[in-house]
Amino acid sequence: MSNGNGAAGPRPDSDDEAALLRPLAFAEGEGLPFALWVVLARALSDHPWTAQDVSVFRDRSGELLVETPTPEGVAYRLRARAARLSGERRTQRAITSALLAEVPLDGDGGHRDWPAAAPYIIDHLAAHAAAAGALDEMLEDAEYLVHAAPRGLLRALNIPGASQGTVRRSIYRASVHVHAAASLPERREILAVDAARHGETDLARELSRGRPWRPRWATGTMVHPALRLTRTGLGVDAAACTVIEGRPHAVTGCYDGNVRVWDLVDGTERLVITEDDGVYALDCVEIAGRPHVVTGTCSGSLRVWDLVTGAERFALGGHKGWIRAVGCTVIDGRPHAVTAGEDCLVRVWDLADGSERARMPGHTEEVRAVAFAEVAGRPVAVTGGDDTMVRLWDLEDGVERAVLAGHVSAVQSVACTVIDGIPHAVTGSGGDPAARVWCLTDGSQRAVLGGHTSWTAAVSCFELDGIPHVLTAGGDCAVHVWDLTENTERAVLTGHHGYVDVLAGTEIDGRPYAVSGGHSAPPRVWDLGDAALPTGRGGHTGTVQAVDAVEIDGRPHVVTAGDTTVRVWDLADGTERSTLPHGHRVEALACTTVHNSPYAAVGGCCGVTRVWDLATGTGLRDLPGPDRRVEAVAWADVNGLPHVVTSDQDRTVRVWHPDEDVEHPLHSDRTRSAVRAMEPVTVDGRPHLLTGSDDATLRLWRLTERGRRVTATFHTGHHWIRALAGTVLEGRPHALTLGGNDTAVHVWDLTDGTLRSTLGGHRSGVLAVACTTRNDRTDAITVDGSGTVHVWDLQPARLREKVTLPTRAQCVTAVGPCLIIGMGDDVVVLDRNR
């Protein structure tokens, strides 16, 4: 070793010393533990270094190293990060192979025993494998998916330039936002369900080894291979993208007054800026070579923040009331912001010195959106607002150049692009399910993009393979991708659980990316280059509100209700037998067999209950209500024949004969409060109907005789009854009730009205309950808002097992050994593992 030419410390002067330092040049995180330093030194030099050799070298070269204490011991890395030269891919492959060889094999099947692997391998093997081009090989090991550190694996999956679009990458990304907080058994169950949602049932079975339940099949409406990550926590009300210190970042604003800056590759939070009120508009800009964000709040404050330090650069004054729109652009070579909002004025600010450049009146109501284009060689701002007008402003002289009329409701969003060499704007309206495309040279409407099923609140333009595209989003909780040269829908990006009214775009490694979210929809990051890839098994395009089962042609089938349809699935393999259109949002469903034919009664927001013959897929009749929402439907025995029972928002319970095409029900009873749940039960050997109401009361109804039909009432103590289930315990009829946001389910003996037991311990409010009896044992199935399914042995009121789902579920039923679950827009069928 020598100091040579006054260098600060020793440096290697031999090939041996360089070989011992080389592993540290590739160390990830805090560095290599000593044992793996020795392993990699051997692997990269083909020399049998001993631990003593490395120890002596470490003691002699301490000034070159950084030693960091960790829970597993000291980690080592180079003090100065060395440049990784040519041949890195080959070196990383050697490192990957050497680290894999350090993972012991189990004693049974010769599989890698990942729980016994060194923490460095669990945390950082993915980074080495990605750099080696071997990550997809690693993902073929199902156990590695379970045990790899989620943050490290996600960063490796999302490295720009890495191979994209493989199914296993998509499976892992689908719920990566919950993997980090999940235990290993929970992560295993989540991955298994996500594998089933992608149609990978063999992988789902492999992941479920040792767990009490395994997915049989699932729909995959809510998963898409373009998804890169999901940020959990609060929703967003504004978003923009920028580059900070060479890495792509998103900047999001929220009603809580916080502006969050986070890495688009792995979702880590870099910075939080706190405003004095809710942030509903922002945009990013470069000022003096540094990234900044301009924020507007609902109280009218407008500020410019440095995104590296989080310091406020200056405040811009002048707006009165809510600031709804902020956009940044360059005019005459200087950064500018254009802002607008509740005061109906459009203002232009010079961000180099904070001065107001122009004030442009013209809108007659609140302004909600701004975008930029170049028309006839001059920079223009395009604005839209509550006056339904789209206006063009010359940014050099502040003059209004054109008004585009055609929307019939408030213009919520504007984006600009160039189509066939001509500047265009795309606008979205809060009262219109279609976005509109406008030519900015002559003001004509070029196209209407009508693929949404609800209002359109956000638009964002981008280029893909040199072709202009636009993203549109809104009330249907999905992001639609459109080719603007042909005005055709290219893809639909699903998975949000709330309205999407925020979109922002950027590029990462030359590929277009988008951030989408909303006030009740945590942001998601999409690689738009993968937007057109095939998705998982199709199904409902809205929340599955109810599930039931019935036998059709001698085979058990699942019947699900959601969006505006009822769908019938073969329980064995998930083949969709039919889709039955209801015409309005479906919220209630019940199935039975009448005269050996499978029937379904379906109700929803239209106030009409429709009866379907599920064997033929034909609607038999409509049972008219008061033109208000049908809260619940059931089939109840009346004189030996199943009858339809409906509960409407007008607090009336009606009993209908299934065969007679009549306008009036057999019985009609007004209740004190709306009935939310109904279940047929047998009490004292006679058929009854059990109802649960907003007044937290259970009522037993006798439907066969004249006179008083409500024979018993039970006050449950819930705030209100959300759902119920009936069963028999020890030969006595019982009911299970859940209410409001309660985290416990009550079990009631219907013979004497006593509370038998309480099923508690749920992490959040219980949303659904069902019962099943097998082998002389009665189980209760409960689903809470955390996405956890609980299975209870009702006899001793004991929790038997839990199953963790990728996301929140809202309904459940049981058929023999299977559980059928409505999870968001998807249907999941679980089998008990033998």
Defining key terms:
834 residues; mainly beta; 13% helix; 48% strand
Structure description:
The chain is mostly beta strands. Helix content is 13%, strand content 48%. It is built from twelve helices and 59 strands. The strands form 15 sheets. Strands 4-59-58-57 form a four-stranded antiparallel beta sheet. A four-stranded antiparallel beta sheet has the order 5-32-31-30. Strands 6-7-8-9 form a four-stranded antiparallel beta sheet, with no helix packed on it.
What's the structural blueprint in terms of helices and strands?
Elements lengths: L14 H11 L6 E2 H12 L5 H10 L4 E6 L2 E6 L9 H14 L17 H13 L3 H5 L2 H6 L2 H8 L9 H8 L1 H4 L4 H14 L3 H7 L5 E6 L8 E4 L7 E7 L2 E7 L4 E6 L5 E6 L4 E9 L2 E8 L4 E5 L5 E5 L6 E9 L2 E8 L4 E5 L4 E6 L6 E9 L2 E8 L4 E5 L5 E5 L6 E9 L2 E8 L5 E5 L5 E5 L6 E9 L2 E8 L4 E5 L4 E6 L8 E7 L2 E8 L2 E7 L16 E9 L2 E8 L2 E6 L5 E6 L4 E9 L2 E8 L3 E6 L4 E7 L5 E9 L2 E8 L3 E5 L10 E4 L4 E9 L2 E8 L3 E5 L8 E6 L5 E9 L2 E8 L5 E5 L4 E6 L6 E9 L2 E8 L3 E6 L4 E7 L6 E5 L2 E6 L2 E7 L2
Antiparallel strand pairs: 1-3, 2-3, 4-59, 5-32, 6-7, 7-8, 8-9, 10-11, 11-12, 12-13, 14-15, 15-16, 16-17, 18-19, 19-20, 20-21, 22-23, 23-24, 24-25, 26-27, 27-28, 28-29, 30-31, 31-32, 33-34, 34-35, 35-36, 37-38, 38-39, 39-40, 41-42, 42-43, 43-44, 45-46, 46-47, 47-48, 49-50, 50-51, 51-52, 53-54, ...
Helix pairs in contact: 1-2, 2-4, 4-5, 5-8, 9-11, 11-12
